[in-house]
Design a protein that fits this description.
Chain A: Its main location: membrane. The complex is a heterotrimer of chains A (514), B (349) and C (314). Chain A has 514 residues and is an alpha/beta fold. In chain A, 32% of the residues lie in helices and 23% in strands. Chain B has a domain at 66-290. In chain B, α3 (55-80) runs antiparallel to α10 (240-267), α3 crosses α12 and α12 (293-317) runs antiparallel to α13 (322-343). Classes of the chains: A alpha/beta (514), B mainly alpha (349), C mainly alpha (314).
Chain lengths: 514, 349, 314
């Protein structure tokens, strides 16, 4: 372990242990953070990074161990104490009230509750100064509900800076940003360090870690497995430390494109609140291809997924299937057309938490034989099917009668994968299929998608992770504010060029705003 | 404090906590009775004796349980699909009105044809009453809790209007009361010589039917899916609104059967007080039964026992009868808390 | 034409404002709860408790304002129970609310029977009397309607302003609104969602109870069973109608009350003679349902309404 100069230590974690039931999320983790340094907390999904930071910030109580900030021990489980000690946290899931303004969100909780009025104008001046100092462009009087994801993140950072945070924790901040926005964020982080702040930056993207951090702390299965200066390591070593063994990128063979199975012809869908609908989108999904949809979250991916998944119909334009334009478009129609759907949120949309595995496995299939006849369920057939899925797709569970809420995210996703792939679909709609999965499950999901492609299915892969898109896709579209870019072939554009599209440049009619 | 899921709750936890809730209810009731001047330890005994202590008492309890099984089922079915039907009271009265309209001579049919006809017509009418709020929910997103509650008042006033107008017994004296049903429209007794009508039989059959629907049919599966997670159900292709409407039809129909059973089985005519809140009590019955249709039968007997027993206890010990309602409210609140605590443990920070 | 005569009579508007007053208290109470994210279906029962407790306190020799305070405290007590079950324990707000209504109502009736075992008609108290505000009460129509009411009515109107200011102009209101929109935002800023929601439910329940007390201490001077008669449920509809804003909710309450006052008067006209009185009595409930339907499209529901918050949930 590298020793940090005692006088410079701003934060010290001492043997933090946290258990959730049988799972040990954090196992005796200790490290120091020095003034003016950026530590990258590296680890794959489920390694315990977020849990550790939630303990530090007081959202969780550690079972053992303690947190010291500037030499003072933090009382456990009090975000207030952490805030007062100068810890600011930018959560992965933003903690903003959409119905209030940026200023109100920032001021929230910074003044004693029992007083009349709050100093709006003074607050506005301070916020504008911070905006200037740190390059965090955002309008203090805008309603949060109307902001883009990138702007919301800036509000989160402003919240911390407004409270004079000395230690900034950023939980997977780049997951929702374009490459250019990521650069801006890094610039802000460098300014923060120049102002004497210390930063903990959580990520699982190696190139970002090497770009911004001075030190790396690696977690694996809840244990601290390595701590080193970033300069002493290369990406190869980092990857190995993170997952234990280096994982080769998926071997992608070239595939011959098949016929067009689904086509969007100038499709538009209505906006939903801040989330844009599609704007005259054109796209063709061909068999034997993985079509990657790159884009920053909240740019119309939801509308696209809902359209192809049958949840919404085009407001204008046409959705054409192999057999023509469907007259009635619904989830059932989509399923009947051979479209398998892996939803973005497996907890909220993909499964019913209090149903058991069997009940979840037949969720899309129950209305037809063999699972039901004339309105009567055949639970025997349903159990057989579930058993088959459990075995073929390696779903680790105590049994088919287990409530699915007790399964890990990876096993839940495998069940969904089995449910949709067992029907040998023509089209697979995979919306963020590996979000939150550990490396084993992630690799498995990718293999299955590739296998479906090799079988001749069209796979639409929607992801915010540009690396995932470029690694897997035969064809890439970029989606921005509901508009679709033309199709680009594998390797046709560089990451930077894709980033330009993701930022909304290059689209037709860009000059007359959408 | 915070709540943490318990992965494998012990038997002590799953049985002990609900038992503790019931025990707490009894203790609280005893204390209240003591304030009223009764012997605190005698209260429970008096209630049990009053509810089940004699043949007459037991029959009274069974008769009281009958409408509660219907309304309890109505609520259980609806709540299972997260359709918050607080309007069983209105549906019950509408069922009773239909029974009176068809059963006072309008249809001069033999009993075997007349009774099923009335029952079905009553169910349809009750279903329609719940369909209105359900439609407002699916079409406009209006919260059905408030609309079903408000409709209770509307329907009760409507019944009052009918009893002073169209349905008023021409032979009656000023009292708002309908004419009596013809003999063919009366539910026969289940056992000769016992004051127990076939409404109870119908209630038990209904409980069984609902249980089968929930466990064995696609509709039951759909209703449970919609209740647990509408978003996932819609995504999977389950027609959520259609399922809600079917649920409303079933729930409203079951509640209306309570009105049918009370008028055709017990009372023989309609007055404004045929239901002392059976519709609302059905909510407690359903919750105590954890929304399980077979559990509803047990819970209805329990609740009816408390009502009948508390009545007799209050006469014997001079305690206001409202103690029964207090006990039910306490049992409900403590039970939902206990059930939650069987699944989650409280951790202090 | 009779209707127009009614509409321009001062007594009509005086009655409308009087009828609106308990609704204003209770609807404001509900609004405070819902803005913090808690639907309080205990409102109907809490109004019954408040009506009884305030009246009983005065009957037992307390002053009128002491009665109001007692009513408020009794409501807060039930608010504490409701809050404990729904906030830290996160139980279903529907079930708990209905349970509280049943508990509060039956406990009240029980206490009433214990306190007055033998009476057939409940005793009367010396209720709040109208207080004419000098000068202002001389304004035609508006004067008698707004400025010759009882002190409790004035208090109701003052409270609308107070609640508006607190909600939109103070740090406390900010925290309360945020708790109803995204509790995680409150938590992340170092405030306790539990404390804010509990406080809101208690204060809101206190206001509901004062609304109930208005019935026994200002509108009438005695306590009857069934006295609240669905007013609580109507208040829930009024909050929706008012889009969770105090000012609009006040407007809704006054409109509603004006309609109620109107139907009472129309009943006594030649027009009303042919129509069964039940139709008039139904009207307020049907009107509430219609209001809900009309407003359903535009309403800005607090996003976290009825969503329990479990700290550190994974």
């Amino acid at each position: 372990m590298t020793k940090t100069d005692e006088a410079q230590v701003v934060l010290r974690l001492s043997s933090i242990t946290k258990r959730f039931g049988k799972l040990t999320a954090n196992d005796a983790i200790s490290f120091d953070l020095a003034k003016g340094e950026v530590i990258a907390l590296l680890g794959e999904n489920g390694a315990g990074k977020t849990t550790l930071m939630n303990i530090l910030f007081g959202h969780y109580t550690a079972d053992e161990g303690e947190v010291e900030v500037f030499g003072q021990r933090l009382p456990p489980s009090q975000p207030k104490a952490a805030l007062q000690a100068g810890v600011g946290m930018v959560h992965q899931h933003f903690t903003l009230a959409d119905n209030m303004t940026v200023l109100e969100n920032i001021v929230l909780g910074t003044e004693p509750l029992w007083r009349m009025g709050f100093g709006r104008s003074a607050a506005r001046r301070r916020i504008l100064a911070l905006v200037e100092d740190y390059g965090l462009r955002v309008d203090p009087d805008a309603t949060v509900g109307s902001l883009t994801v990138g702007e919301r993140q800036r509000v989160e950072i402003l919240k911390a800076l407004y409270r004079d945070a000395r230690i900034l924790i950023l939980d997977e901040p780049t997951a929702v940003l374009t490459p250019q926005e990521t650069e801006d964020l890094f610039a802000t982080m460098r300014k923060a360090v120049a102002h004497g702040l210390s930063v903990i930056f959580i990520s699982h993207k190696l190139h970002e870690v090497t770009a911004i951090s001075s030190r790396v702390v690696v977690l694996r299965h809840g244990k601290l497995v390595a701590e080193a200066r970033t300069a002493d390591l290369d990406r190869h070593q980092l990857a190995q430390m993170m997952v234990g063994a280096e994982v080769p990128p998926p071997a992608v063979r070239e595939a011959a494109p098949g016929e067009v199975l689904v086509a969007l012809e100038g499709v538009s869908t209505p906006d939903r609140g801040a989330a844009p609908g599609l704007k005259s989108a054109n796209m063709a999904l061909r068999g034997g291809q993985i079509i990657g949809m790159a884009g920053v979250s909240g740019n119309g991916q939801a509308a696209l997924a809902d359209l192809i998944g049958g949840l919404i119909a085009p407001a204008s334009g046409r959705l054409r299937l192999k057999d023509g334009v469907p007259s009635d478009w619904s989830p059932r129609a989509a399923l009947a057309a051979g479209i398998a759907r892996i939803p973005e949120d497996r907890h909220k949309t993909g499964t019913i938490a209090d149903f058991d595995l069997t009940e979840n496995a037949v969720l899309e299939l129950y209305a037809k034989p063999p699972f039901s006849r004339r309105g009567w369920m055949d639970w025997g057939a349903a159990r057989d099917f579930t058993q088959k899925v459990i075995e073929r797709y390696d779903v680790r569970c105590p049994g088919a009668e287990t409530r699915i809420r007790l399964l890990s995210g990876g096993n839940m996703q495998k069940l969904i994968l089995g449910r949709v792939l067992e029907t040998a679909p023509d089209v697979v709609l995979a919306n963020q299929p590996v979000r939150g999965l550990d490396i084993g499950a992630l690799t498995y999901v990718h293999e299955q998608l590739l296998a479906a492609r090799d079988r001749g299915a069209a796979v639409l892969l929607i992801s915010e992770d540009l690396d995932e898109i470029t690694a897997l896709s035969d064809v890439i579209h970029v989606i921005s504010e509901g508009r679709l870019s033309p199709a680009f072939g594998r390797g046709e554009l560089t990451t930077a060029e894709l980033g330009v599209w993701m930022a909304g440049h290059g689209f037709e009619g860009e000059t007359h705003a959408a | 404090m915070r709540l943490e899921p318990v992965a494998n709750p012990t038997l002590l936890r799953t049985v002990g906590l609900p038992a503790l809730a019931l025990f707490g209810t009894v203790v609280a009731a005893s204390l209240l009775a003591m304030i009223a001047g009764a012997q605190p330890f005698s209260v429970l005994g008096l209630i049990v004796k009053g509810a089940f202590g004699s043949k007459f008492a037991a029959l009274e309890t069974l008769n009281r349980a009958t409408p509660l099984i219907f309304t309890g089922l109505a609520v259980a079915v609806a709540f299972r699909a997260q359709l918050w039907n607080i309007g069983a009271e209105a549906q019950l009265y509408v069922g009773a009105v239909v029974t009176v309209v068809l059963g006072t001579g309008a249809l001069a049919w033999p009993a075997f044809a007349l009774l099923p006809t009335i029952a079905v017509a009553a169910m349809l009418a009750g279903a329609v009453v719940l369909l209105v709020p359900t439609f407002l929910k699916t079409r406009f997103g209006v919260d059905e809790v408030v609309t079903t509650l408000l409709l209770n008042f509307v329907v009760l006033l409507w019944v009052s209007m009918l009893l002073e107008g169209a349905l008023k017994d021409p032979m009656g004296l000023g009292w708002p009361k309908s004419a009596r049903l013809i003999a063919e429209a009366r539910l026969p007794r289940m056992v000769e010589g016992l004051r127990l009508h076939w409404g109870l039989g119908l209630a038990l059959i209904s409980a069984l039917v609902v249980w089968v629907i929930q466990r064995r049919t696609t509709l039951g599966y759909e209703m449970r899916a919609v209740g647990l997670n509408k978003e996932a159900a819609r995504f999977a292709g389950i027609p959520v609104n259609t399922v809600l409407i079917k649920t409303a039809l079933l729930s409203g129909g079951l509640a209306a059967l309570a009105g049918f059973s009370e008028v055709a089985g017990l009372k023989g005519s309609l007055t404004l007080d045929i239901s002392p809140g059976f519709g609302y009590t059905g909510i407690i019955v359903a919750m105590l039964a954890l929304l399980n249709p077979l559990g509803v039968v047990v819970a209805a007997l329990f609740v009816a026992g408390i009502f009948v027993g508390a009545d007799s206890m209050s006469r014997a010990a001079g305690v206001p009868t409202y103690l029964a309602d207090i006990m039910l409210a306490l049992a409900l609140l403590m039970m939902v808390l206990a059930i939650m605590l069987t699944k989650f443990r409280v951790r202090r920070d | 034409m009779e209707i127009i005569d009614i509409l321009i009579s001062a007594s009509f508007w005086t009655a409308a404002i009087r009828i609106a007053s308990p609704l204003i208290f209770a609807a404001l109470g509900e609004l405070v709860c819902e803005r913090a994210g808690v639907l309080n279906l205990g409102i109907e029962g809490i109004m019954v408790v408040g009506a009884f407790a305030g009246w009983m306190a005065v009957y037992l020799g307390g002053g009128l304002w002491l009665g109001v305070a007692v009513a408020m405290a009794s409501g807060m007590l039930f608010g504490l129970l409701h809050g404990t079950l729904t906030v830290p324990f996160g139980l279903s707000q529907h079930v708990v609310g209905l349970g509280i209504t049943l508990l509060a109502t039956s406990l009240t009736y029980y206490c009433y029977r214990l306190a007055l075992p033998e009476v057939t008609s409940p005793p009367k108290i010396e209720a709040f009397q109208p207080f004419e505000i000098p000068l202002l009460s001389d304004i035609p129509l508006v004067g008698p309607a707004l400025f010759s009411q009882t002190p409790l009515t004035y208090l109701a109107f003052v409270l609308v302003i107070v609640v508006t200011v607190v909600l939109y102009r103070t740090p406390l209101g900010l925290a309360l609104r945020a708790a109803g929109e995204n509790p995680a935002a409150v938590e992340a800023q170092g405030l306790s969602v539990t404390a804010i929601r509990m406080g809101a439910v208690m204060v809101g329940s206190g206001l509901m109870a004062v609304g109930g007390a208005f019935l026994t201490m200002s509108a009438f001077n005695s306590f009857f069973f069934e006295m609240v008669n669905g007013r609580g449920w109507i208040c829930i509809a009024l909050v929706v109608f008012g889009s969770w804003r105090p000012g609009k909710t006040l407007l809704g309450a006054v409109l509603f009350a004006a309609f109620d006052a109107l139907q009472i008067r129309v009943q006594q006209t030649s027009l009303g003679a042919d129509i069964p009185y039940q139709i008039f009595l139904m009207a307020p409930y049907i009107l509430s349902i219609l209001a809900l339907v009309i407003m359903s499209r535009r309403a800005q529901v607090p996003a976290a309404l009825m969503v329990p918050f479990n700290k550190g949930e994974r």
